[in-house]
Amino acid sequence: RPPDGFTTILPPGGTSFALAFQDPPGADYGNLLRTSIVDNADGSYTAQYLVYPFGKFVVSVTINGTHVVGSPVAVTVSPAPTPLLLSAQFTDLGSQIDLLFDRPTDRGRLGGKRPCSQLLDFGAGSIGQPGECSFLTDSQLRIYLGSGTTIRPGDLIALKRDTIYAPYQSSLPCVGSTQVAAPLNPTAPVAVVSGDTTIGDCAVTSLVVDGSTSYGGAFAPLVFSWTISPMPSGALNLSAPRLRLTAGQLDLYETPYVFTLSVASSLFGAGSAPVTHTVVKVSSGDLPSVSLLNPQPVETQLWMPLKLQATASFSPCVVDRRLLFQWSQTSGPDVLSGLVTTGRSIRIPEYRFELGQSYVFALTVSRVANVSAFNQISFPVVVKPTQPLAVINGGDRAVGPAEVFTLSAARSVDYDFSPAAFSYFWACTDSSDTPCVDPTSGELLALPSMASVSVSASSLRPGRSTFQVLVSKNGQSSVATSRVNVVDYSPPATAIQPLGVAKVNPKGRLVLFGSANRTLPTDTLTYLWEAIEGDFVFSSSTVATSQTYEVLVIKAGALVGGQTYRFRLSAFLNGNTAAPGVAEVEFTVNEPPSGGSVTTTVLDSNSTQLAMFSVYTAGWSDDPRDFPLRYRVSYRGDDGADVPPGSLQYLDHAPGPFPPVHHPPRTYT
Q1: Fewer CB near the last or first residue (10 Å), C or N of the chain?
Q2: What value does the CA radius of gyration of the chain take, rounded to a whole number of Å?
Q3: DSSP per residue over 487-538, as a string?
Q4: What is the dihedral of CA 543, 547, 552, 554, to 10 degrees?
Q5: Each residue of 281-313: pLDDT tens digit?
Q6: What is the pLDDT, as a whole number, of residue 369?
Q7: Pairing of strands 597-600, 613-618
Q8: Do residues 57 and 77 lie in contact, with contact meaning Cβ atoms separated by under 8 Å?
Q9: Would the pLDDT of 551 be above 50?
Q10: 635-to-129, 345, 650 alpha-carbon distances in Å
Q11: What string of H, E and C letters represents the secondary structure of 615-648?
Q12: Which residues contact 382 (CB under 8 A, 6 or more apart)?
């Protein structure tokens, strides 16, 4: 504050106040120096300076041409701390790698997903195609591994120079490298076996026991291990995904041959639980071979339609190959009534099954020419309860010190529509992550086990408290969290409507509904939306509404799969920006399966039009909660034209045989 005669403050301001820099000897940084002086009009002044690059400077502060006390002064400008790359580690799914920095970065000055080649070097390894990166937080970078990935634990990842900085102008670029660590808890793969349960004794009849639909193990191939009891004659490759035998290799009639398969990740070593499949040889040479195409064990949930699919074939011993398919149910309340139960597939609509019931289905396939020559497969269907979705109305919020607020989980979602009641358990922790204590009584905050609880802000310490509710039903549970910030003013009550979904679809539009309460009918409210977590920039390409409107519409494609976002709505009563009402909502964006491949048995470009061929998939990874994955296979010609819909076969499994398709010779994709 400049004094009058260096003894008295001059309230009006207006004094000539100057700030000057002298470059280091021999240097001329010119416009790299930024200074500003603000006259506060109350006798005080604010001086700021930003210096780049770094070095020693002499700073002079003068009033009316006279140096203030301590001026001039030598100032050494040092760079801001540079973020260091701490670690790189595969996620438990194995389809991504997370890089952690010791402090926030500027996210490479770009938003959203981008090619990893812009930021990182991988040495001899490869992250496949498309191989993209995205910052989940300012200090966490995620690599999304693509098809053809070869990078392994122990490989080196290095930062490219001049790409990532601290979030300050006065920062040196990040440098460094680190080895990729294996996941802490790698997700175990799942073994799946399918094939005939009986085989005739025709000499050329073959049996295929197929484990190729086993899944998991990230992007690396699975390691297969078979055991058979009793052991068939002849040579067998017990480490192959499929075992092919002839009837002659099964020497014993009417004796169960038990095939047991275990699979393991070739990348991380995690192994599956073993799965068994039983085959019996019978004395008839003309039985059809029947296989269920669904991944086994067959699992469904009440809200999902279930499509059962099968295939059947004959050995070359049979001339008339016309077949009859008949689906039936041998256990559990009837779910097939009114459905067409003939044909290679059957679709059971949603909400036909019941929780807690045991269901067993059978498929009988017989010859049209001889209905007594039939084969049958029998399999259980497991109806799994769906995890509920816990919801706390209003999201995170700010409350005044004397306010009584209500937290309600009554809108939690039961996708099974079970008549059983939800049970609720509430807990509260303060900013130090210890149980909430009433500052007046010194006792733990007591919360009833009800759908809604009312809490007085006076029973909480100032600052942020975290409330959690555990919602349970039918052995399944879900947790929702609400953060309540006790402030020293009385904000307008502000809320964001719960989303009602576990994950947000990145390809769809997302609408966030906000609201705030007026104290008087004549009060006015203004709003401001902010993204406080997640890589999001407000622009005309990402939102369809203004940041200052109470409803925020986020456009399709604006959110990045796999990221967690937190949006904040601030509400200002009568333009009072010093006492805003605040609500926040957090959500995770779903991401598609990744890291897999597609192959076909058609390797010869001169394959005949009548050739049978199969399409196989392998290595697709996703959130375990999203399994089993569903596949849709289609193809088109090299002229870009789609094959007519009648010639397409869509599958909910992999692999699957394609019948001969009669089209002009050309290349198909």
Answers
A1: C
A2: 34
A3: -SS-PPPEEE-----SSB-TTS-EEEEEEE--SSTT--EEEEEEEEESS---
A4: 20
A5: 876 656 787 888 887 788 898 888 999 988 887
A6: 80
A7: antiparallel
A8: yes
A9: yes
A10: 21, 22, 10
A11: EEEECCECCHHHCCCCCCCCCEECCCCECCHHHC
A12: 297, 298, 299, 300, 359
Q: Give residue for tokens 């995620």.
A: 142
DSSP state of 234: S
Q: Which of 222, 89, 102, 100 is nearest to 145 (CA)?
A: 89
Bridge partners (DSSP) listed for residue 141:
99, 135
User: How long a stretch of residues is the chain?
Assistant: 669
**CB burial of residue 442 (10 Å; 0-12, 13-18, 19+):** exposed
Closest CA to 455 of 417, 427, 418: 427
Question: Cα–Cα distance between 295 and 252 in angstroms, integer?
Answer: 29
- For the stretch 325-343, pLDDT in tens is 999 999 999 999 999 999 8
Tokens found for residue 501: 């979904």
**Joined tokens for residue 321:** 């190959």
Beta strands 45-51; 73-77: pairing state: unpaired
For residue 312, give the H/E element and its range. strand 306-313
Cis preceding-peptide flag for 297 (omega within 30 of 0):
yes
- Give per-residue pLDDT as tens, 573-585: 998 888 899 999 9
Task: Give me the pLDDT at residue 58, please.
Answer: 81
Q: Which two tokens stand for residue 607?
A: 């394959």
Minimal CA–CA distance to 369: which of 318, 407, 408, 418?
A: 318
